[in-house]
């Protein structure tokens, strides 16, 4: 991504990271290490910016921040004044660790895991992004050309292509409709771009197909998979049991990690795994 867009996105995301980071800090203050999954490089940059800008706001003593799986350099945050409630605690002098992972959180971190939403989920609305971007770029005088029809197309472009293409489109609309006064040409440009699937949607569709084929190689998509499931005596039980079996057994991860991925408790996961054994769902993966 170009530096100007990257810096603007980082500023927007850093503001949103604060609410997420409060949960990490609370956990660190209780004496636990923390590991955060942030897949997008721009998210990791925002995390770094936030942490470096809030060195004095921590009450956990010395903190070491480690980035793994990406290109970021690790940082160390010196000890802040210890809060009176933890001054006499042995954990107040221990260096706490905050690990930020580019890939899935590995086993053996001995830390409390957190996962950041994708960058798009942390961004403000497309209208707010457009207004703030135009203001930051010194193009706010063209804000009036961004009517409801254009914003609807820009929203679709953001969903299909991501923020990089979205910001390029905002600039093009400001130039074509705002500077040149060619409103119809701007609409034609947006309509053509919005109609293209784009890399992101293509990847999402491909990912959905691969997941739909997990139970049976003969299932070409989710519809075919569900048609197969509803023919069984216990379709709902088979589905949830097979999902638990696939995540835990086929991916060879711990129950803790499987629980985090499926967003269920360990007791629920264990119940689903027992159900998988009873229903013999392993046969679907042969």
Topology, element by element:
Layout (H helix, E strand, L loop, with lengths): L2 H27 L4 E4 L3 H13 L9 E6 L6 E3 L18 E6 L10 E4 L3 H4 L3 H11 L11 H14 L1 H17 L3 H13 L2 H15 L9 H8 L5 H16 L4 H8 L3 H14 L7
Parallel strand pairs: 1-4, 1-5, 2-4
Antiparallel strand pairs: 2-3
Helix pairs in contact: 1-2, 5-6, 5-7, 6-7, 8-9, 10-12, 11-12
Provide tags for this entry.
286 residues; alpha/beta; 5 strands
Structure explained in plain terms:
With 286 residues, the protein is of the alpha/beta class. The chain has helices at residues 3-29, 41-53, 119-122, 126-136, 148-161, 163-179, 183-195, 198-212, 222-229, 235-250, 255-262, 266-279, and strands at 34-37, 63-68, 75-77, 96-101, 112-115. The radius of gyration is 24 Å and the shape is flat.
Order of helices and strands: HEHEEEEHHHHHHHHHH
Strand content: 5-15%
Mean pLDDT: 78
User: What's the tally of helices?
Assistant: 12
The largest sheet has its strands arranged as 3-2-4-1-5
Helix content: 55-70%
Low-pLDDT segments: 79-91, 200-220
Number of strands: 5
Q: How many angstroms does the end-to-end distance come to?
A: 43 Å
Shape: flat
Q: Summarize the main sheet.
A: 5 strands, mixed
Concise account of the structure shown:
This protein has 286 residues and is an alpha/beta fold.
């Amino acid at each position: 991504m170009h530096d100007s867009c990257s810096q603007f996105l980082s500023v927007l995301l850093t503001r949103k990271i604060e609410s997420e980071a409060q949960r990490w800090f609370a956990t660190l203050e209780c004496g636990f290490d923390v590991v955060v999954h942030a897949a997008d490089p721009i998210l990791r940059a925002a995390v770094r910016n936030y942490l470096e800008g809030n060195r004095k706001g921590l009450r956990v003593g010395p903190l070491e921040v480690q980035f793994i799986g990406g290109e970021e350099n690790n940082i160390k945050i010196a000890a802040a004044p210890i809060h009176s409630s933890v001054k006499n605690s042995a954990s107040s002098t221990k260096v706490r660790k905050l690990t930020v992972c580019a890939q899935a959180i590995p086993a053996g971190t001995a830390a409390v895991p957190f996962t950041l939403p994708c960058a798009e989920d942390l961004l403000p609305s497309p209208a707010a992004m457009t207004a703030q971007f135009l203001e930051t770029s010194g193009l706010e005088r063209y804000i009036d050309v961004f009517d409801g029809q254009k914003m609807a197309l820009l929203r679709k472009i953001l969903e299909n292509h991501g923020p990089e293409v979205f910001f390029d489109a905002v600039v093009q609309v400001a130039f074509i409709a705002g500077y040149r006064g060619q409103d119809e040409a701007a609409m034609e440009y947006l309509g053509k771009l919005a109609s293209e699937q784009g890399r992101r949607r293509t990847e999402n569709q491909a990912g959905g197909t691969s997941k739909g084929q997990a139970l049976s190689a003969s299932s070409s998509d989710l519809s075919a998979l569900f048609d197969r499931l509803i023919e069984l005596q216990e379709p709902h039980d088979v589905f949830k049991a097979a999902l638990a079996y696939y995540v835990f057994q086929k991916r060879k991860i711990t129950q803790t990690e499987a629980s985090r991925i499926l967003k269920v408790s360990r007791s629920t996961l264990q119940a689903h795994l027992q159900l998988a054994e009873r229903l013999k769902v392993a046969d679907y993966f042969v």
